[in-house]
């Protein structure tokens, strides 16, 4: 029989087990002892860890059987409990149950119980009382069948648990099923021995799987969720990852702090993944994270101090054991650690490192008011080592002390902090670069800008961060870099001796000053590069004007920062590229920082062919081949800065890390190869990363490309949502292309006069965007805008507009001379002049470059002008289905098919195995899930679920959800070979299906 869907995620089987036990009311046992036989009433103990849903499972099962007509009563032992519990407390609880059985015999039963209770003080009195309790319960159940449930069994006093265990084992009331719920109890706990022994079955609730947690999150939020949100929740909970209560607590805290954002139809995370926490409720924290006993306020407060202590620095047991004073603050922390380790809240690694088992608990504790001065504890730990070893030796032998120095701040003298931090950075750079960077950042807070060591520290820190793609770390150097640039270095200090007779010492100082100046210029260029990597421009309206002033003092850095405008990062600033300036620029390429010549090549890739050729000749040697130059111009067309840097720098640049530019590079790659789901996921991550409080900025081009994808999929509303996030000042060709598409198809939706007006306005706005991009020197990517305009004018039967647009496109090719512009011209000639050879040449070039969306356009054009329209239509249809293209593409292909009198191929069911996603969808349909529930579990829209079900009906030959579920359950799909990993069941002589 098909099980009914349960509102509890991952607990459907357990709910049915408990409900089955509760249904056995009225069944009597065949033995006086009360042990169940056959269908007799049973005793069930539901157990599991903190927050696994024991109470929820029992309550859901209770509601289920009550709806079927059964009667379920609660054994409220807590309200009837005396000071010490025991048989008297159990008697009061049983009398409370009897009071709810309305059959007219309540006074007689109560009198019988109280009469025996009055004589219970003598020998054997307690046993007689328990026997009477069992008899009156059985008598009541014969008149009005009912079941008993009791919760929080682990909190039951020892004497009460002992009495209940004896009652259930020896004097079990016939016909009364009993369901108990509680945590696993320690062996020394009386209830831990008595109650499991009295149960016919112990049902342990397992932790939820990762898939179940994802479904729980989607159900709780009521909308599809980004997979990264579920991953972050699981990582924050550690051993509590499978606890439904813990998951719900984290979600509640995210909603309280505004850490969730609905974007592109999915709920995304806008806080750093390490910042997830449980709700800062002391009672809830104790219930979830202290497995054996609820902590008192003092324990929670001490744990909050420890959480704040380990957040900033690595703390080990040896740090606490070196304390000489037994009453000192560190000794108190040490005693707290002992208690928390015993409670399994804190772990101690093999190296003695102290950590919280549940990161979300530590984050929640840090929001509570911590007792004591945590900074002084960091200073004390540092002093315990420096008093014995000295500052330099302590930093060399204990580099982790740098974290304590940074956390202690001004409580540690600069004379001690600086040598310790420098030694720690030099020692840790070989095995832990993150520690080294953190040490360098800390030492800059202690070194004044005029200190001769400051430029070197800045240079080392920036170089180390860049080598490991830590652009956020480089941006964190902004303030000390500005302060250091304001200090005169080298020739700016003036002539020491106007007579020109400098001594040897003065020459050495001058050489050192020049090195410092060159080093600061390199750090400034590195800072500008990292800002571009995080899609932040010093020329943005909200940028600090001090950075623009600093860049003006370093021309090479200023030119590098200005490149961002040509790649859609900040406003375009063509005035920064003045003729003849290249000869005045200083600096050379070092590691991932491009040289001025390479920067000019990056900028020229967006402009004209002549400009690009001049810049290419300026790059020394034969560093770049034709393939690299083509990759550069292709990347420039999409504003892909990381792809452009990879093409120019070659082995000096590694596309790694988590910067916004690197994520956008992945998005462009997914877009071109047809993996649009991954491309949209990249766009959502870029958007949420820019809102998560990091130094990263938002990506305007990522928004535009996401709008383009949603437009091509027919999701016009979501495309508009992405475009609404882009300011009107953004004039990159990729933005113009998306705007044109959305405006045009908005007009196509309305076929009336207003629709025609919208189409005309879309074309006029696109021409304005083209002019604006040309004025800014942004030619790369304009070909796709003009090609879309051309396709609109051709469909609109506007010969004059078509000729004008084609002339603009050919003029653009003459000026830009880029491979992508040539492809667009070939497609346009095929579209306007019916030139099949040009369209076929464009198709071959696009296939070689790998651009699946443009390949579909080529196939659609060849369907119109080619010799074999059916084959080109078939390929266009296959590619369109692979991309998930919607109405815009389908309407164009349908029009082409009608013009050539060919038919659009149907997506016939291919008799290959169903995918894992399809199998999962069929399973959810068979479980009775609605489209909305399925959409939440699969993180998609209900419309997408309907489309997938329609495709499944075609593949399987089923006409409805009922037929699909029946074919799944009776093995028909497996017999057809559609279920991967399952053999077709073999026929049974009696007509039944056999096999797996």
Radius of gyration: 37 Å
The whole-number mean of residue pLDDT values reads 83
Tertiary shape: flat
Counted by DSSP, the helix tally is: 48
Percent helix: 55-70%
Structural class: mainly alpha
Side-by-side strand order of the widest sheet: 2-3-4-1-5
Plain-language structure description:
- There is one protein chain.
- Strand 8 (346-348) and strand 9 (354-356) form a beta hairpin.
- It is built from 48 helices and 9 strands.
- The chain has a 5-stranded parallel beta sheet, with helices on both faces. Strands 6-7 form a two-stranded antiparallel sheet.
- The chain has 996 residues and is mainly α.
- The protein is 60% helix and 4% strand.
Summarize the model shown.
The protein has 48 helices and nine strands. By secondary structure, it is mostly helical.
What would the keywords be for this entry?
mainly alpha, disordered N terminus, 48 helices, disordered C terminus, 996 residues, 4% strand
Topology (SSEs and partners):
Blueprint (H helix, E strand, L loop, with lengths): L11 H11 L20 E5 L6 H14 L4 E3 L12 H12 L7 H13 L6 H19 L3 E4 L7 H13 L7 E5 L7 H9 L2 E4 L5 H12 L5 H11 L6 H13 L3 E4 L2 E4 L12 H8 L7 H16 L4 H5 L7 H14 L3 E3 L5 E3 L2 H7 L8 H16 L1 H7 L3 H8 L5 H15 L4 H12 L9 H14 L3 H5 L2 H8 L18 H30 L11 H8 L2 H12 L29 H9 L4 H10 L7 H12 L3 H9 L10 H14 L2 H15 L9 H13 L3 H9 L8 H17 L3 H23 L6 H14 L3 H18 L2 H15 L2 H14 L2 H14 L3 H15 L3 H14 L15 H11 L4 H8 L3 H15 L4 H9 L2 H4 L21
Parallel strand pairs: 1-4, 1-5, 2-3, 3-4
Antiparallel strand pairs: 6-7, 8-9
């Amino acid at each position: 029989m098909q099980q009914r869907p349960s509102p509890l995620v991952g607990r459907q089987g357990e709910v049915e087990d408990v409900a089955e036990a509760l249904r056995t009311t009225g069944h009597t046992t065949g033995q006086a002892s009360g042990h169940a036989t056959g269908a007799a009433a049973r005793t069930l103990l539901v157990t599991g860890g903190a927050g696994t849903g024991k109470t929820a499972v029992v309550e859901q099962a209770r509601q289920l059987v009550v709806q079927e007509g059964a009667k379920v009563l609660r054994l409220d032992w807590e309200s009837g409990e005396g000071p010490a519990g025991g048989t008297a407390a159990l008697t009061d609880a049983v009398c409370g149950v009897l009071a709810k059985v309305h059959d007219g015999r309540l006074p007689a039963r109560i009198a019988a119980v109280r009469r025996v209770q009055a004589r219970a003080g003598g020998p054997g009195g307690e046993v007689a009382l328990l026997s009477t309790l069992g008899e009156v319960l059985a008598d009541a159940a014969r008149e009005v069948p009912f079941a008993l449930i009791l919760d929080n069994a682990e909190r039951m006093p020892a004497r009460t648990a002992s009495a209940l265990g004896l009652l259930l084992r020896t004097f079990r009331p016939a016909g009364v099923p009993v369901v108990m719920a509680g945590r696993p109890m320690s062996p020394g706990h009386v209830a831990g021995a008595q109650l499991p022994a009295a149960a016919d079955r112990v049902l342990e609730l397992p932790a939820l799987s990762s898939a179940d947690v994802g479904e729980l999150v989607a159900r709780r939020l009521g909308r599809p969720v980004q997979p990264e949100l579920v991953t972050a929740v699981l990582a924050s909970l550690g051993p509590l990852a499978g606890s439904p209560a813990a998951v719900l607590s984290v979600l509640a805290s995210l909603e309280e702090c505004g850490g969730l954002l609905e974007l592109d139809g999915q709920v995304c995370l806008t806080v750093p993944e390490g910042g997830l926490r449980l709700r800062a409720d002391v009672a809830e924290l104790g219930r979830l994270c202290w497995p054996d006993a609820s902590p008192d306020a003092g324990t929670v407060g001490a744990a909050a101090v420890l959480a704040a202590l380990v957040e900033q620095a690595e703390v080990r047991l040896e740090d606490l054991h070196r304390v000489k004073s037994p009453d000192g603050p560190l000794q108190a922390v040490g005693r707290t650690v002992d208690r928390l380790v015993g409670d399994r809240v804190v772990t101690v690694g093999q190296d003695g490192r102290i950590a919280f088992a549940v990161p979300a608990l530590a984050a929640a504790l840090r929001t509570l008011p911590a007792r004591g001065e945590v900074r002084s504890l960091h200073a004390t730990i540092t002093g315990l080592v420096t008093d014995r070893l000295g500052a330099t030796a302590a930093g060399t032998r204990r580099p982790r002390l740098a974290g304590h120095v940074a956390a202690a701040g001004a409580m540690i003298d600069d004379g001690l902090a600086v040598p310790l931090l420098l030694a720690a950075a030099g020692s840790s750079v070989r095995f832990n670069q993150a520690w080294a960077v953190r040490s360098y950042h800390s030492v800059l807070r202690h070194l004044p800008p005029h200190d001769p060591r400051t430029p070197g520290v800045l240079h080392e820190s920036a170089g180390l961060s860049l080598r490991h793609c830590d652009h956020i770390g480089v941006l964190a150097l902004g303030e000390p870099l500005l302060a250091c640039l304001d200090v005169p270095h080298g020739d700016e200090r003036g002539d020491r001796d106007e007579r020109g007779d400098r001594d040897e010492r003065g020459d050495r100082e001058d050489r050192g000053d020049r090195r410092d100046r060159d080093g600061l210029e390199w750090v400034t260029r590195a800072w500008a590069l990292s800002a571009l990597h995080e899609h932040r421009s010093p020329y943005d309206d909200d940028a600090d004007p001090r950075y623009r002033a600093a860049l003006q003092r370093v021309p090479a850095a200023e030119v590098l920062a200005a490149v961002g405008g040509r790649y859609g990062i900040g406003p375009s600033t063509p005035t920064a590229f003045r003729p003849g300036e290249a000869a005045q620029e200083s600096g050379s390429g070092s590691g991932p920082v491009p040289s001025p010549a390479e920067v000019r090549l990056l900028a020229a890739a967006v402009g004209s062919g002549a400009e690009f050729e001049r810049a290419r000749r300026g790059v020394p040697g034969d560093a770049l081949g034709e393939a690299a130059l083509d990759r550069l111009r292709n990347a420039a067309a999409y504003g892909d800065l990381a792809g452009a840097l990879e093409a120019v720098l070659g082995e000096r640049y590694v596309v790694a890390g988590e910067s916004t530019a690197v994520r956008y590079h992945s998005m462009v790659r997914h877009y071109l190869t047809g993996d649009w789901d991954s491309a949209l996921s990249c766009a959502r991550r870029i958007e949420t990363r820019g809102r998560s409080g990091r130094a990263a900025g938002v990506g305007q081009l990522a928004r535009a490309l996401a709008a383009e994808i949603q437009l091509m999929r027919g999701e016009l509303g979501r495309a508009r949502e992405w475009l609404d996030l882009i300011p009107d000042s953004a004039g990159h060709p990729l933005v113009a292309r998306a705007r044109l598409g959305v405006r045009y198809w908005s007009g196509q939706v309305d076929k009336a006069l207003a629709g025609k007006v919208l189409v005309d306005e879309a074309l006029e706005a696109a021409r304005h965007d083209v002019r604006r991009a040309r004025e800014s020197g942004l030619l790369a990517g304009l070909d796709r805008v003009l090609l879309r305009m051309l396709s609109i004018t051709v469909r609109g039967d506007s010969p004059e507009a078509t000729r004008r647009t084609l002339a603009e496109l050919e003029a653009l090719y003459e000026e830009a001379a880029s491979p992508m512009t040539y492809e667009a011209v070939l497609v346009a000639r095929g579209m306007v002049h019916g030139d099949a050879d040009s369209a076929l040449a464009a198709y071959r070039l696009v296939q070689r470059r790998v651009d699946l969306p443009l390949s579909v356009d080529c196939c659609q054009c060849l369907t119109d002008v080619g010799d074999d329209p059916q084959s080109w239509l078939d390929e266009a249809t296959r590619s369109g289905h692979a991309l998930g293209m919607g109405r815009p593409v389908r309407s164009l292909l349908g029009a082409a098919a009608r013009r050539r009198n060919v038919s659009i191929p149907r997506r016939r069911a291919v008799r290959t195995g169903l995918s894992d996603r399809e199998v999962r969808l069929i399973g959810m349909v068979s479980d009775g899930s609605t489209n909305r529930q399925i959409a939440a579990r699969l993180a998609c829209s209900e419309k997408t679920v309907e489309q997938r079900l329609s495709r499944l009906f075609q593949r399987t030959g089923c006409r409805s959800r009922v037929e699909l579920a029946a074919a799944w359950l009776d093995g028909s799909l497996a017999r057809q070979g559609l279920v991967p990993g399952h053999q077709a069941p073999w026929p049974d002589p009696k007509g039944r299906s056999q096999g797996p």
